[in-house]
TrEMBL record:
Cofactor needs: Zn(2+)
Gene3D superfamilies given in the database record: Zn peptidases (3.40.630.10)
Protein's name in the database: Deacylase
Keyword Hydrolase: yes
Domain Succinylglutamate desuccinylase/Aspartoacylase catalytic span(s) in chain numbering: 27-126
InterPro entries assigned: AstE_AspA_cat, N-alpha-Ac-DABA_deacetylase
Keyword annotations: Hydrolase, Metal-binding, Zinc
Domain of life: Bacteria
Organism of derivation: Paenibacillus brasilensis
Keyword flag Oxidoreductase: no
């Protein structure tokens, strides 16, 4: 397995590093992005941890390719804000339509270049979906009819089996969100597209752990990681540099 770092938007104020881990054999491509919203820290830390695990060869990609953008919106991240405009409303809404923001355009071009079969977008949200079906905290979201849906249900089942507190259980949500990176990946690239939302009010360490586990379950579903290769016991870094 090889891990390489690249720069998206090199020379621009919004430039951000991304990473590609390539397995020994060809196979599906998976793209993982975090930090489309700059203050959703646990999702960002989980993506960074994923890169760290790959670099340390603790997580092994046996086939295919994994593309990770840990902090999409660097400017919003530096200010710890969601971002203005909301980047997750600026992705292309239909084929042949450009993104309405240069940063989302660059992220989408990267996705188009690698044609991922799977697209995972990591976020954080308010509330616990188990207690209130109108909130998005602790949900995994896909688009109606998306081929990822059966895998989403399996991953949720696995996660909830390991989460003792029932209030923190994950639930599936199916929704169209035009202009979001997930809906663009689903509708324009035909990817199995998923958004992961942890709940803000849980301890950061727990949220990072949930993201990390969910991503690895999907990597296994995609065939990039062998069933016994999932690094679920990851010790997570919670201190912001
Ligand atoms: Zn978000």
């Amino acid at each position: 397995m090889q891990v390489k770092q690249y720069m998206l938007g090199k020379g621009y104020s919004w430039a951000t590093p991304y990473y590609i881990a390539t397995g020994e054999q060809g196979g599906p491509h998976v793209m993982v992005v975090a930090g489309i919203h700059g203050k959703e820290i646990a999702s960002i830390r989980a993506a960074e941890k994923l890169v760290e695990l790959l670099n340390q060869q603790k997580l092994h990609i046996s086939q295919g390719k994994l593309i990770i953008v840990p902090i999409v919106n660097q400017e919003a991240y530096r200010k710890r804000i969601r971002g203005v405009p909301d980047l997750n409303r600026t992705f292309p809404r239909k084929k042949k339509q450009a993104a309405s923001n240069r940063l989302s355009a660059a992220v989408f071009e990267l996705a188009q270049k690698h044609q991922p079969e799977w697209y995972l977008d990591l976020h954080e949200a308010n509330g616990l979906s188990q207690k209130d079906n109108k909130v998005l905290g602790q949900t995994i979201i896909s688009n109606s009819g998306n081929p990822a849906v059966p895998a989403v249900r399996r991953v949720i089942k696995l996660m909830n089996r390991s989460i003792k507190l029932q209030d923190q259980h994950f639930n599936i949500r199916l929704r169209e969100l035009s202009g979001s990176s997930r809906t663009a990946a689903a509708r324009i690239l035909g990817a199995r597209a998923v958004t992961v939302e942890t709940c803000w009010s849980l301890p950061k360490k727990v949220r990072i752990k949930y993201h990390l586990e969910i991503v690895q379950h999907f990597l296994r579903e995609a065939g990039l990681v062998k069933a016994n290769g999932v690094y679920l016991a990851a010790k997570v870094r919670t201190v912001t540099p």
